[in-house]
Amino acid sequence: MTKLLAATVLLLALAPAPGSWSSGPALSVARSEVAVVLVSGANPAMFVIGGYANGNVDQSLVEVFDVDRGIWHDVAPLPRGLNHIAAVGCRGKVYTFGGFAAQNNAAVANADVFDPSTNRWTPIAPLPHALGSVSVAVLGDEIHLIGGRDVHSVQTHLVYDPATNRYASRAPLAVGRDHMGLVAYDGSLYAIGGRIDTPANNTAYVDIYDPRSNAWRSGAAMPSARSGMAVALYHGKIFAIGGEQRGMLSAFTTNEAYDPETNRWAEYAPLPEGRHGTGAAVTNGRLFIPAGAPVPGGSRQSDTLLVFTL
Q: Which CATH superfamily is domain 18-309 in?
């Protein structure tokens, strides 16, 4: 019985992690520190917004991937080129908030909305103060903007109401951080990882916000402290993929998923190559990761579209 148990444990240890990766059509330009947004509907579209490209850190380029047709095309550029923009899809439109005008610094308060039906950007109420690398998610009819950095990482928790074009404050994070993942699930928000000021101070925190009580509680920490990773809800689990840490030769290939129902993390098939400075979009049963950097920092960008399936 003991030998049988030992053999079973060995087989489980040798079994490949679940999931597989493939490649989709490349972007027209190699980019990193972009915002990634899905606008769902009859024809789902993935937007890749701003970031570093062509030797510049203030790109206004907006590329859109037509998921059904499998092709990329450009739409109207951002009103102002920025990196580390907070962006989210809400009611068929794309909302952007803040960002950095220089390489990972010089935060701005700009906020805009893009309407795909008119191919136009329109200014909305600016952030109450300038922030870059803010984490953003839609919960109900509101857009939550959490953390970010001005000169230092902040605990800020703002709620933007598209109907009134106004911001309100909610319970702040216990520990301020930026380059953090944020996902809405079953009426709550999950803030994943991130850094305190620099990638030398990565965290493994999982903070869970309940809007009914306007309070945060802690979840099981990430097995790997990371920042700048792609985070998305896929098959009922919160995936945290890639990321960076100061001193690494290449970005993380780590792919871990948190189960909100069991408060546990599990390992999945790693990225074929390290990535940070990007995001993830989930549609049609697939998880897409466009562009991003294969090494820490901003010295290199990629034009790849990586596709994960379970």
A: Kelch-type beta propeller (2.120.10.80)
Q: Which residues of the chain have pLDDT under 70?
A: 1-14
Whole-number pLDDT of residue 9: 46
- Please report the pLDDT score of residue 58 as a whole number: 95
Token reading at 51 = 């970031």
Say what the pLDDT of residue 8 is: 46
Q: What share of the chain is helix, strand, coil (3-state, %, to 5)?
A: 5, 45, 50
Confidence at residue 42, expressed as pLDDT on a 0 to 100 scale = 80
Q: Residue 309 is encoded by which pair of tokens?
A: 């399936």
pLDDT in the model for residue 13: 55
CB proximity list for 8: less than 8 A, separation 6 or greater: none
Radius of gyration of the chain (CA): 19
| d(C-alpha 70, C-alpha 289), whole Å | 14
Q: Report whether 224 contacts 242 (CB < 8 A).
A: no
**Cα–Cα nearest to 57, from 5, 2, 106, 12:** 106
Angle CA 32–36–41, to nearest 5? 155
